Amino acid sequence: MKKIILILFTTLIPAITFSQDITKIWESDSLFLKPESALYDSPKKILYISNINGEYLAKDGNGFISRLKTNGEIEVLKWVDGLDNPQGMGLYKKKLYVADLNRVVQINTKTAKIEKVYHVDNAIFLNDITTDTNGDIYFSDCFGNKIYKISDGKINVWCESGFLSKPNGLLCTKENLLVLNMQSKTAYVINKLTKNSHQIFSGIDNLDGIVSNGKNGYIVSGAWQGQLFNVDADGNKKLLIDLGKEKIITADIEYIANDNLLIVPTLDKTVLGFRLTY
Question: What is the pTM of this model?
Fold first, then answer.
């Protein structure tokens, strides 16, 4: 992603049901069990879907990861199981990293085996994960108001600042880390080298997922009200879709820019696929 222009803005676009820029093209079979996050593995051309499959925050061993084709067909429902509360995921060199309450689970994408578990003793609710080109892994503790980093196999608290307010979605760019705050309805950018930070937008409830839109901006989800927004390089927000009337949740999304394909886990039983045409 190219460098993002940082502009503070606070105006929330009025809700509409559908934008002309987005079209639903498929809905998966209703076999998922609280699908929370989607992540695309480009070399394999497959999507990973995390399934909570139980009560939130429960250490029940019911959680699992699925493999989903980009046409909405479920390839393997329980590709890796035995997790507790799998949330966000990150990928680096055939290793899938999954936030799982107070640990990060490392999975070999070739063998589907759990290779390593990073225990984070003081974590309360690890939520999202993002990786950068150096192989560093950043992950948010939503209830602990911290961002952790795994570098060279070592875990450290990377950010514990007053602007963190139930941090959820994360996105790495070349220079920065973007953070969505659920409680304060704000998004911040943090320089990975200096840790200088700036607010980049505010006013969206229940901020959850953030992905590059392939056009110098992002797509973000307002999970519990079922909204998806496009945020351009100048900081302008546009509501792409509002699924609230259908009682559909828009959780931790993924976007495949080459296919203009937006993947939306619903925290229910299905995953949705939308085509963007903007």
Answer: 0.92
